[in-house]
Design brief:
By secondary structure, this protein is an alpha+beta fold. 18% of the residues lie in helices and 24% in strands. It has a 5-stranded mixed sheet with strand order 5-1-9-4-10. The chain has a 4-stranded mixed sheet with strand order 8-7-6-11, covered by helices on one side. Strands 2-3 form a two-stranded antiparallel ribbon.
């Protein structure tokens, strides 16, 4: 997400990206007997086997509140993404969000509540309903209403200045990103390095 340039009229618009948790199906990095880590095009296909394409849309705070509430509505106590989670009863439409997003969620048997949702310094929960947001994600969700996210189906698509980097299948987008990392053209943010980050999504069980 950090490597796409918004059009001028959206340059200051809060922007986030996501992938559906159920769309990530395997480990990407392998290690040989000598300890060398590597990835192959085959491992990319194993990670993202569904042939999704990525797009950007212009949505708003109201729709993002609806979407994030749907994403967390099916998370139960003991979900694999919670601190003591057990990988059972997963929701494939769960949002895995970009590093500039911070979320806090109360988990309750009576229903979950999102108590914090920020994109950088932009507070989505207190924003006006029509405040614009740019969202990057799989077309299955953003144009087809997949996993129940029908709130985005009529949103305007965004054309990025460097849109060639956001074209093709999701595995090709990931491949191009890894090539850029390997050549030093881009640097992996600390938020994505091991150990896995825990600050983006925090749960309180009540």
């Amino acid at each position: 997400m950090d490597y796409y340039t918004l059009p001028d009229d959206l340059a200051s618009t809060p922007t986030m990206a996501f992938v559906n948790g159920g769309g990530v199906r395997s480990d990407l990095i392998f290690q040989d007997d000598d300890g060398h880590k590597y990835a192959t095009y085959g491992s990319l296909i194993n990670v993202q086997p569904f042939g999704n394409t990525a797009i950007g849309i212009k949505t708003n705070a109201k729709q993002m509140k609806e979407a994030i509430n749907l994403s967390f509505s099916k998370v139960k106590k003991g979900h694999p993404s919670t601190p003591e989670g057990d990988p059972t009863d997963e929701f494939g439409g769960f949002f895995q969000v970009s590093s500039n997003v911070s979320l806090e969620v109360n988990l309750s048997d009576q229903g979950n509540t999102v108590t914090k949702f920020t994109i950088g310094d932009f507070d989505v929960l207190t924003a006006n309903d029509d405040d614009p947001i740019v969202l990057i994600g799989p077309s299955f969700t953003l144009t087809e209403g997949g996993d129940g996210y029908t709130m985005f189906k009529d949103c305007e698509q965004v054309t990025f200045k460097d849109s060639e980097d956001l074209s093709g299948l999701d595995i090709d987008i990931l491949k191009n990103y890894l090539v850029k990392v390997g050549t030093g053209e881009v640097e992996v943010k600390n938020a994505y390095k091991e150990p896995a980050p825990t600050s983006r999504i925090q749960y309180t069980e009540i």
